[in-house]
Amino acid sequence: MPVIHIILSILILAAALVIMAGVCATKHDEVRRAPIGAIPKNDRMRGSAKTAEQKLKMCIAIAVALFAALALAMAVV
Amino acid sequence: MEGLRRKLLITFGILLLFRLGCALPVPFIQKDVIGGIFGSGNLFAYMSMLSGGALERCALLALGVSPYINASIIMQLLAVALPSVERMFKEDKEHYRKTMQYLSLGMAVLMAVGYYAILRSYGALAYTQGASAVLAAIVIVAAFAAGAQATVWLGWLIDDYGIGNGVSLLIFAGIVSRWSSILYLVDAFSYFFQNKNIVHCIFVVLIPVLAVLAVYFVVKTTEAEKRVPVQYARAAGKSSFQGAGRTHIPIKVVMSGVLPIIFAGTVMSLPATIGAFLNPANHPTAYRLLTGFTSANWLYCILYVVLIFAFNYFYIDIQFDATKISNDLRTAGASIPGVRPGASTAEYLKKAANSVAFLGAGILAIVAAAPIILGNIMGMSIQLGGTSLLIVVGVALEVVTSLDSVVAIRHQKGFLN
Q: Distance (Å, rounded) from C-alpha B218 to C-alpha B328?
C-alpha cells in the first residue's frame, strides 16, 4: 500500500472515530424538540459562551467535513 | 416568513450534503464487481432502496439510517418483551435514548462488518493479503459505520434547524432520487413502439396513470381514520352545562405505517439473502431453492401477504395502549358515550383498533403486493414500489403538517386552512 494511502487511512480512521463517539455523546430527543424560535436554555444562562453540547456539535461538523474531504482525496490519489 | 425560508434552505442544504455523501466512495473497494448482489429481491435490494442507491455505489453513506431504524425497532420490541426496558422507556427517557444511540452504533459496526464480508467474498477489495489487507478492512468498516452515524447526525440537524423529521426526510430523499429511472419508461416505450409491440406499449403508457392513482390511493388511506366519540363533562371558563364538549379519538386505519411491510419484506428476503452467500458449485440444490424464492414465485406473494397481516396485528397490539388511553380519559373527566369508564372503555377501544386493523392490513397488502403482481405480469422489477410510495407519502404529509404549523404560528392560519 502506498505511503499516501496509509497516511490518509489513519486520518480517515481518526475522523471516523470522532464521528462515532461524538454522535453517541450527542443529546438529541426527536420527540421533545425546542419550540420554534425558542433560545436554548443554556444559551440564555451563559450569554455568548459555547456550551459543551455546542462544542461537541462543532467537533462533529468538523470531523464530518474532514471525513468527506479525506475520502475524496483517497479516491483522487 | 424569514424564519421559514431559513428553515427550508437549511433543509435543502442538508439534503444536498446527504446526496453528496452518497456519491463519495469508501476507499479500497472496486465497486464494479458487486453489481450482482442487488436487484434480485433480496435484503440488499431493500437496503439499497433506503440508502438511495448509495449501497450499490459503496459510498460513505451506504448504510444510511438503517442501523438507527433497526436499533429503534429493537428497542421498541424489547420494551414490550422485557419489563426492565419498559421501565427504562417510561421512567428514564435519557437512559433509554442513550442505550438506543449505542445500540445504533453497534448495529452500524455489525452491518459494516457484514457488508465487508460480502465485498470480500465477491473479490471486490483492493487489498486481500498482509498488513495492507488488515488496515484496509479497518478503514472500510470504520468508514461505513461512521457514514451511518454521520447520516443520523445530518437527520438530527434537520430536526433542530430545518423542517420535518430529519431521519424520515433522508429516507425520502434517497427514494425520490432513484425515481429518475422513470426515464427508462420513455426508452421502453420507444423500443416497444419500434418493434410494433402494441400490447406492451399500452402497458408502458398505463404505468404513469397507475402511479398517479396509486399516489391518490395511498394519500387517502394514510389519512383515513376511525373516530371514536368522546364526551367531556366540563370545560374551563364555562358552566358545566354549556361546557360539556364533544370531540373524538382518531384511530388511524394504517396505524402501523410501513413497518409491517418492512418486517414482512425482511423475513421474505432472508432465503434469497442466505442464497447470495452460497457457492452454487458446492451447494447446487440449496442455492437453486433459496435464490429461486423471489417475488416471481406465487408462494412468495401469498406468504408475503399473510406476514403483512400478522405483523400489522402484532404491531398494533404493542403500540396501541388502550388501558393508558382509558385512564387518560378518566383523568381528564371524559368518557365515550354509552361506555362505562375504566376496563369497559379500554375493551371498547381495543375492539375499535382491531376492527380497523384488518382493513389497514388489507390496504398495506394491496400497496405492497400490487406492484409485485404487476411486475410479474409485465416482466419488470418494481417489487419495492409500494413500500417506497408509502414512505414517501407518509413523510410528505408530515412535512406539509410541519410547514403548516410554522405558518400558523406566524399568521394564526395555516395554508391547509
A: 32
pLDDT tens digits, B358-417: 998 998 888 888 877 777 776 665 555 677 777 888 888 888 887 887 777 766 555 555
The SS3 call for residue A16 is helix
Yes or no, beta carbons of A9 and B409 under 8 Å apart: no
CB B45 within 8 A of CB B294: no
SS (H, E, C) B64-127: CCHHHHHHHHHHHHHHHHCHHHHHHHHHCHHHHHHHHHHHHHHHHHHHHHHHHHHHHHCCCECC
DSSP state of B40: S
Amino acid B227 reads R
Query: Which of A26, A34, A71 lies closest to B143 in CB terms?
Result: A71
Angle of the B166-177 helix axis to the B385-411 helix axis, nearest 10: 130
ipTM of the complex in this document? 0.81
Q: What angle do CA B130, B135, B141 make, to 5 degrees?
A: 125
Report whether A71 contacts A12 (CB < 8 A). yes
What stretches of chain A show up as alpha helix (H) in DSSP? 3-25, 41-46, 52-76
Secondary element (H or E) of residue B155: helix B130-161
How far, CA to CA in Å, does B235 sit from each of B326, B334, B393? 19, 10, 37
> What are B235-283's pLDDT values in tens digits?
555 554 455 577 888 888 888 877 788 778 778 877 777 776 777 777 7
A41 min Cα distance to partner chain B (Å): 14
Q: Please list, in sequence order, all residues whose beta carbon lies within 8 angstroms of the beta carbon of residue B233, skipping any fewer than 6 positions away.
A: B240, B244, B333, B334, B335
Closest partner residue to B24 (CB to CB) among A1, A27, A68 is: A68
**Contact with chain A for residue B150, Cβ under 8 A:** yes
Residue B317 to residue B326: CA distance in whole angstroms: 15
Q: Which positions ≥6 away from B321 have C-beta within 8 Å?
A: none
> Are B142 and A16 spatial neighbours (Cβ–Cβ below 8 Å)?
yes
